C-alpha cells in the first residue's frame, strides 16, 4: 500500500504543496477500514500545513486509485499525519554530538574504573 501511495504521489498527484513529500509508513486498522498514512517533509509548520491541505485535496483521488490499482474490495479511508520520527532522530543525534563534544559521552568504554560503573 505504501508503494502504491508513493508512486501516486511521485507520478500522478500534481499538487505543488506535495512536492518533495514522502510517504514513510502506512498503518491499517484491524478491520482495514482506515489507514493512517505517515508522511515526511523538510520544512516548517507552514510547509506541514500546506502539505496537509494538499493531502486533503488529493486524498479522494489517491483513495480511488489505491482501490483500483490494488483491486481492494473495501478501500480504507485515508488519514494523513506528519511522521516526526526523522526530526526526533535528528534531534537525538545532535544531543549525542553535544555530549560527545563536552566530554560527557565517550565513544569507547573507560578502563579507569576497572570495567565497573
How does this structure look, described?
The chain has 117 residues and is α+β, with helices and mostly antiparallel strands. The chain has one domain: GMP Synthetase, Chain A, domain 3 (2-Layer Sandwich). Helix content is 47%, strand content 17%. A three-stranded mixed beta sheet has the order 1-2-3, with helices on one face. A hairpin with a 5-residue loop joins β1 and β2. The mean pLDDT is 86.
Number of domains: 1
Q: Report the CATH superfamily.
A: K homology (KH) domain
Order of helices and strands: HEEHEH
Provide the β-strand percentage band.
15-25%
Work out the oligomeric state of the chains in this entry: single chain
User: What is the fold named in CATH at topology level?
Assistant: GMP Synthetase, Chain A, domain 3
Amino acid at each position: 500500500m505504501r508503494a502504491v501511495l508513493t508512486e501516486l504521489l511521485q507520478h500522478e498527484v500534481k499538487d505543488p504543496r506535495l512536492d518533495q513529500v514522502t510517504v514513510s509508513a502506512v498503518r491499517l486498522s484491524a478491520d482495514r477500514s482506515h489507514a493512517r498514512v505517515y508522511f515526511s517533509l523538510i520544512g516548517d509548520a507552514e510547509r506541514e500545513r500546506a502539505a496537509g491541505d494538499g493531502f486533503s485535496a488529493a486524498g479522494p483521488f489517491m483513495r480511488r486509485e489505491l482501490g483500483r490499482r490494488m483491486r481492494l474490495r473495501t478501500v480504507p479511508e485515508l488519514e494523513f499525519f506528519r511522521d516526526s520520527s526523522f526530526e526526533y532522530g535528528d534531534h537525538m543525534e545532535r544531543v549525542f554530538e553535544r555530549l560527545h563534544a563536552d566530554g560527557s559521552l565517550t565513544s569507547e568504554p573507560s578502563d579507569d574504573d576497572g570495567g565497573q560503573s
